[in-house]
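Lab notebook, design round three. We kept the backbone fixed and only want residue identities now. Task for the bench partner: fill in a sequence for the structure below.
Input structure tokens:
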């Protein structure tokens, strides 16, 4: 597709600049601090969960990254030699065989983990699973006043999903549902790899297909999402269906075959039934369909303009499918239960809660949505007005005190949900009852000394992913396809949505996962850049190439880089930097570091 017109350059530039800004912010958090769920000791001697931040060492991250770079440079040289000798194959057929091999490995490892633990659901997943089993017994009390589905009727979709699956796996068989999560995890990894290569092929990103195996290995090594296979809350099924919709949308843009419109629309409709925040994926798809329509209508030949109209029709079909699937799900729930779905708690109250302090962390659950719902006797109009008034107070306070209140709150909230390298996967796993004798090494990995080592490794990987994504956005600014950013746009949608919505790292992990292909390919771009620079230096030394003098653009870029470094160095010396980036709760008299590293009284002993 033509990338020379002004509209493409403008959209590509604005989008990459916005993404680079968000990724750079998360990278700073990762370099200078680390978040985790710890225990806060109260005055009465009891404990309460609280997300803490501890100081990180950016110099150590830099050294580790340089070591990784050296290893990758040596590895590329070794691979090049092996290919020259015919020991390795890199053709499409070989890559496809490796892909299916890794897919089987993902399924096998996930299945083994589920069967080795057989962890009972807890917290919200226990409520959802328990209600589904109550339906099987003819108990529909969850719709009674102030009960779960009376307050959260939008959760009826995931309850219905587990209710229907129980006819296949049997009542109370949570292990069977966890195995469904394993299938969904396998689909998520496969779809992310395939759609990244697919959307890159819409531009001039053919070399990305050669990195398919590296991207898949990145998913296998970065394990937080894998731990969520025992978490029965619709995260993985919703993510798999949403990515299926994205994949089929890509197939349509590549082939213009109408059957992909139907497939994408159905996947998107089912995804939103299971998890309403899957609408973020729909918005990402809509952005690219609208872009395609504009390009086809205004920047292409007349005989291609009909394609633009079809892209807009595609968007309408997806919206209709979401509405129909939601309506069908609601009617089926009402028919099964004999109860009418109410309006439930007002969505605006979630935004209000997302802008308040909470026991677990900024923007987390603090009971506001339930309190205001009960206070106004379930009158949605009164609840809406009360939520609007409260939100106005919060926004006014933050806007009047941006440096003291507004920006520090948003920065701590960002760290709370994006800067935990485990994305609370271990917190969502530890302490649950198990129907299987969990091996000691696995128990240590979940809650003992093994969890500390895993957290440290994931902390480094988080920095590599973010730094790689930043490299990808910058180094492929000119040569990359706009369509290859579809996964990054999904991530951006998740970031913007949860900047104001209720906070939890378990909510943001699907969007961070979408960054992993960019992190892997960005590191590859960085290594290739170093190789080209090394080759150029050798050519100049050997006299086979002339020394190149930097042009005006090069000098301007160098000057801008110097100014940026000086300004950032000055920013690091401010108290505002400590309150927004270099967060450290140890300074407040809390033994946060001891909890994270399990030293002293926090040592679990295994």
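Proposed sequence:
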């Amino acid at each position: 597709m033509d990338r020379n017109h002004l509209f493409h350059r403008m959209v590509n530039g604005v989008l990459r600049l916005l993404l680079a800004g968000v990724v750079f912010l998360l990278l700073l958090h990762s370099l200078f601090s680390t978040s985790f769920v710890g225990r806060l000791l109260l005055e009465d001697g009891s404990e309460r969960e609280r997300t803490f931040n501890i100081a990180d060492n950016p110099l150590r991250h830099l050294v580790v990254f340089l070591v990784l770079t050296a290893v990758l440079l040596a590895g590329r040289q070794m691979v090049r030699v092996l290919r020259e000798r015919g020991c390795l194959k890199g053709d499409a057929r070989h890559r496809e065989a490796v892909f299916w091999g890794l897919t089987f490995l993902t399924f096998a490892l996930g299945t083994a983990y589920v069967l080795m633990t057989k962890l009972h659901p807890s917290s919200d997943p226990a409520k959802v699973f328990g209600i589904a089993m109550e339906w099987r017994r003819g108990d529909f009390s969850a719709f009674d006043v102030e009960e779960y589905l009376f307050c959260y009727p939008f959760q009826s979709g995931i309850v219905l999903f587990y209710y229907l699956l129980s006819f296949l796996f049997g009542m109370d068989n949570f292990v069977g549902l966890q195995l469904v999560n394993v299938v969904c995890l396998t689909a998520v990894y496969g779809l992310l790899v395939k759609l990244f290569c697919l959307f890159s092929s819409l531009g001039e990103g053919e070399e990305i297909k050669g990195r398919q195996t590296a991207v898949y290995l990145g998913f296998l090594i970065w394990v937080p999402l894998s731990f969520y296979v025992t978490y029965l809350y619709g995260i993985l099924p919703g993510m798999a269906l949403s990515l299926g919709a994205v994949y089929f949308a890509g197939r349509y843009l590549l082939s213009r075959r109408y059957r992909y419109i139907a497939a994408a629309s159905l996947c998107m409709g089912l995804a939103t039934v299971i998890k309403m925040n899957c609408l973020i994926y729909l918005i990402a798809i809509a952005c690219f369909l609208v872009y395609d329509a504009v390009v086809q209508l205004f920047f292409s030949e007349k005989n291609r303009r009909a394609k633009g109209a079809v892209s807009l029709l595609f968007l309408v079909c997806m919206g209709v499918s979401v509405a129909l699937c939601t309506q069908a799900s609601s009617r089926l729930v009402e028919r099964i239960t004999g109860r009418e779905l109410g309006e439930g708690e007002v969505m605006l109250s979630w935004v209000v809660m997302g802008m308040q302090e909470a026991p677990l962390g900024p923007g987390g659950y603090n009971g506001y949505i339930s309190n205001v719902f009960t206070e106004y006797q379930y009158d949605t109009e009164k609840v809406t007005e009360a939520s609007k008034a409260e939100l106005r107070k919060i926004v006014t306070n933050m806007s009047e005190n941006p440096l003291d209140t507004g920006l520090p709150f948003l920065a701590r909230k960002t760290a709370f949900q994006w800067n935990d390298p485990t994305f609370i996967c271990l917190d969502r796993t530890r302490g649950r009852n198990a129907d299987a004798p969990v091996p000691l090494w696995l128990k240590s990995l979940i809650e003992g000394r093994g969890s500390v080592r895993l957290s440290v490794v994931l902390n480094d990987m988080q920095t590599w992913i973010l730094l790689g994504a930043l490299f990808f956005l910058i180094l492929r600014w000119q040569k990359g396809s706009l369509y290859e950013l579809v996964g990054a746009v999904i991530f951006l949608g998740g970031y913007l949505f949860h900047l104001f919505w209720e906070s939890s790292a378990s909510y943001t992990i699907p969007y961070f996962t979408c960054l992993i292909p960019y992190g892997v390919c960005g590191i590859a771009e960085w290594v290739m850049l170093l190789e080209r620079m090394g080759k150029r230096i050798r050519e100049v030394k050997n006299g086979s190439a002339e020394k190149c003098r930097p042009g005006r653009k090069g000098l301007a870029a160098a000057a801008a880089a110097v100014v940026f470094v000086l300004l950032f160095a000055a920013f690091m010396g401010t108290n505002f930097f400590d309150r927004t980036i270099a967060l450290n709760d140890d300074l407040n008299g809390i033994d946060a570091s001891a909890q994270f590293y399990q030293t002293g009284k926090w040592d679990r002993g295994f």
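Keep this in mind before ordering anything: The longest helix spans residues 305-337.
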